[in-house]
Amino acid sequence: GDALSDVSFDDFVPIVDHKRAVKVSHQRRCSGFSTGELERFRGIFEASDANHNGVVDPKEIGALLAELGFKMATVKDREHVLSEIQKARKAAAEAGVEEVSESGGMTFWVFVQLLRTLQKGDEKKALDREALAVEQSAFSTIEVDQFREVFLSWWEKSQSLGLTSSQQPKHAGEAETRVLTKECIRRLLRSLGLTLTAEERRALDGKIDVFSEEGKVDFGDFLRLMRWLLDTDFA
What is the mean pLDDT of the chain? Predict the structure, then answer.
């Protein structure tokens, strides 16, 4: 008869459990990164694997991370990264990776875990930075939510207008930061019925430059800019 009809429910459950366990293990190994991201990371890793043995040697790790934008300028930086590599090895082993290279080197899947660990640190810094901006601007929760809607709406418009609207990642694994350019801020103000004089435009540009050398503001700086506009009764 049919092969499936010969499998009892009691036999079927372990099969399903095994497939689920394999899927969970794979997801943990990939650390939430997409196939495209993993392919990009694989290329970066292999380019740094001088011996082509699947392990980036300890002396190569510093150059690899520096190329990706992770700072290792001080002893504290190096100690932090070494500590995170140990955590990444443990996470990779828990995800079912057999080769984690305890000798000081770093295998690809440990590298993937390291990128996720370092990214989470960046995300926490971004959230802390935004929380500080909320505190400094002294807007209410409702006002912050309203400003967020405005910010995201103009971020989406800036994409359709072809304006640069994202801060490029400083390193692999880091998500793009949504930002608004000076031109986007000016258009936003004009949409509110404000007409800027040449002097006011220079003052606005100067304030944005205080927040970012690249002349762009993320949501935290957008809140600070809105507070400045209100406090100075701008335009």
Answer: 78
* pLDDT bracket for residue 128 (50, 70, 90): confident
From 102, 104, 114, 94, select the one nearest 44 (Cα to Cα): 114
- Of 59-68, 86-95, 132-141, 197-206, the one with minimum mean pLDDT is 59-68
Distance in angstroms (rounded) separating the CA atoms of residues 164 and 179:
8
User: Position of tokens 């370092």?
Assistant: 118
Could you tell me the sign of the dihedral formed by the alpha carbons of 99, 103, 108, 109, in that order?
A: positive
Closest by alpha carbon to 59, among 104, 102, 107? 104
Element (H, E) at 135: helix 108-137
Give the global pTM. 0.49
Q: Which stretch of DSSP H or E encloses residue 82?
A: helix 75-94
pLDDT attached to residue 23: 46
Tell me how far apart the alpha carbons of residues 180 and 161 are, in angstroms, rounded to a whole number. Answer: 12
> Which pLDDT tens digit goes with each residue over 136-164?
889 998 999 899 999 989 998 888 777 65
Task: Specify whether the CB–CB gap between 220 and 133 falls below 8 A.
Answer: yes
CA distances from 160 to 167, 181, 227 (A): 16, 14, 27
Transcribe 138-204 into DSSP letters. T--HHHHHHHHHHHHHHHHHHHHTT---EEPPSSTTPPPEE-EEHHHHHHHHHHTT----HHHHHHH
Tokens of 126: 């971004």
